[in-house]
Design a protein that fits this description.
Strands 2-1-3-4-5-11 form a 6-stranded parallel beta sheet, with helices on both faces. The chain has a 4-stranded parallel beta sheet with strand order 7-6-8-9, with helices on both faces. The chain has a 3-stranded mixed beta sheet with strand order 10-12-13. Helix 3 links the parallel strand 1 and strand 2. By secondary structure, it is of the alpha/beta class. The protein binds tryptophan. The site of tryptophan has 17 residues, from helix 3, helix 9 and helix 11.
Length: 340
């Protein structure tokens, strides 16, 4: 992990790997996977061929990174696609009825294990089966999403990884980079539980940090441009959490921020790579690695109740230098990963 970050920073100092948006983030961090891979080759599988069904809620760079990392790490754990592992991968394109169809398909084919990427996907498969083990990935708040009753020892067939983020650290960064910000606009998709719980926390924290806030919600990505434009006229900065609807159209929000000349603080590194100004968040490659390790434990026979929900405790500051320049702000922050 440390090695991966050091390498990333070294590459950036040498002027490598800071080329193009989300690619810069995901390709350089491939090194992280490599490091994790070699340390895990000793794991034993129980020898049988398995079927793993993977459902991803929507295509956006962060969820794609998670999926790729999961598949790479499953191989490192001894489950190699095409050898002893069949993967049935389905993407729901952010559509609830697609999610339901995919969930029934997985149950019908009696997969050995289901991996669900993002909250709505996890909720759909959890509603469809109480038998097949489910490992979710990147569910921000598994308790509010009603996926588990207990994080330490889940009592049902569901466990997984959470990408809970430190909103307070993002507010600290906001104070440091843009001390004149008084009013923040909270922008998110109304139906996403993952965003609701982060915004609840952000509202409480706003008072502690002396911020006023405005709130604006969308029902889907097509409403983002208009909602963001209106919000931008009322606030000094926008904050958007780890929201799938917004991440799917992040370049639109980034443009609105640049045009209005205000910073857009975001919940995930990929959203900075897609033009957001700054975040403090996790590395999603690492979350994919953790998800695959938990999946492998269950495939090897461990009961779900003995596989606690995992969160990551390493957070990274990520800043977009191109966006910073466009709105006349700095990209110089100690210890931050800079993308362009
Ligand atoms: N945390 C989101 C959820 O619970 C999924 C997610 C992972 C995400 N990475 C992201 C959303 C990046 C937006 C941007 O559904």
């Amino acid at each position: 992990m440390k090695k991966g970050l050091a390498l990333l920073l070294a590459m950036m100092t040498m002027g490598l790997g800071v080329g193009c948006g989300s690619q810069a983030v995901s390709s350089t961090s491939g090194e992280t996977n490599q490091a994790e891979t070699t340390s895990n080759t000793s794991t034993e599988t129980n020898g049988e061929a398995k079927t793993v069904a993977i459902v991803q809620y929507v295509e956006h760079p962060s969820l794609d990174t998670i999926r790729e990392s999961i598949i790479t790490q499953l191989a490192a754990e001894g489950y190699v696609e095409g050898e002893n592992l069949t993967i049935d991968y389905q993407n729901a394109q952010a559509d609830q009825s697609n999610l339901n169809t995919i969930a029934s398909k997985f149950v019908g084919e009696n997969a050995d294990l289901i991996i669900a990427i993002a909250t709505p996907a996890a909720q759909a498969v959890a509603a469809a089966t109480t038998d097949i083990p489910i490992v979710f990935s990147a569910v921000t708040d598994p308790l509010s999403a009603k996926l588990v009753d207990n994080l330490e020892s889940p009592s049902g067939n569901v466990t997984g990884t959470s990408d809970a983020i430190p909103v307070d650290q993002t507010f600290e960064l906001c104070k440091e980079l843009t001390p004149d910000v008084k009013t923040i606009g909270f922008l998110y998709t109304a139906s996403e539980v993952n965003s609701q719980s982060v915004i609840e926390e952000a509202k409480t924290l706003a008072t502690d940090y002396g911020f006023e806030f405005e709130e604006s919600t969308i029902t889907n990505s097509s409403e983002l441009q208009q909602a963001a434009e209106i919000l931008a006229t009322k606030v000094d900065a926008i904050y958007t959490p780890i929201d799938n609807g917004i991440a799917s159209a992040m370049p639109v929000l980034a443009e609105v921020g640049k045009t209005a000349g205000i910073p857009v603080y975001v919940g995930a590194d990929s959203m900075v790579a897609d033009g957001g100004y700054a975040t403090v968040g996790i590395k999603y490659e690492d979350l994919g690695v953790k998800t695959a390790q938990m999946a492998a434990e269950i495939l090897n026979g461990k009961p779900v109740s003995e596989v606690p929900v995992a969160t990551l405790d390493q957070f990274y500051k990520v800043i977009n230098a191109t966006t910073a320049k466009a709105i006349g702000l700095t990209a110089e922050v100690e210890g931050a990963i800079v993308v362009e």
